[in-house]
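2024-03-11 09:14:02 INFO queue: dequeued item DUF5683 domain-containing protein, len=203
2024-03-11 09:14:02 INFO validating residues
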Amino acid sequence: MHEINQLRTVNWQLRGAATIILSVSLLAPALAQQGPGSIRLSPEDEGRGLGGPQHNFDFLAPGASGDNYQTAGFFGQKLRPYLAGNADALAHLDEYRRQKTFFLIDRLVAVGSFGLYGQQILAHGDRVYFNSTQQVAIGVFATSLLATVFINRNTNSHLQRAVKTFNHDVAHNGTWQRLQPAAIGFAAAPTGQPLLSLRWALR
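2024-03-11 09:14:37 INFO prediction written
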């Protein structure tokens, strides 16, 4: 019976330690948005949905507060230094840069085809609005407009994922480093019962 009580004591202590670890894991996403080392997007940019506006994102750098937002740049390049060392966040930022590159190329194609159509109107003296070259230009322009829809659909989400990934890792690593025990072992109580020993170091 004495051994059974000892095992019960150890089991309850193990359950308590597991509860602490689980609580930290569940709180990490919420802490990520408020932690001093996190990156915060402006409320407007945080709420961008699929196919939303394509203007530059604004963000608060780690440690910044108030309205001291700075632009992330057209390709998110001004955000990159803050994500250095976080491979997953940088991968999402690379996807954002790729989509913005596609968007830029698509815009150049659209403008070029529109310009070609206009140039052909008076290219041969009389006004012409639907010769073979203009038909090709119209087709290219329409294709470009359709491509824009697909290109812009997920562009914003890539940068948002980059920031969320970075914040999640900051919260997870920072919180766990502060709360994780410095040492784990077993100790004997005055009654002789084994106790789970958790020791924390002040940081």
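2024-03-11 09:14:37 INFO annotate: Residues 18 and 93 are 35 Å apart (CA to CA).
2024-03-11 09:14:38 INFO item closed
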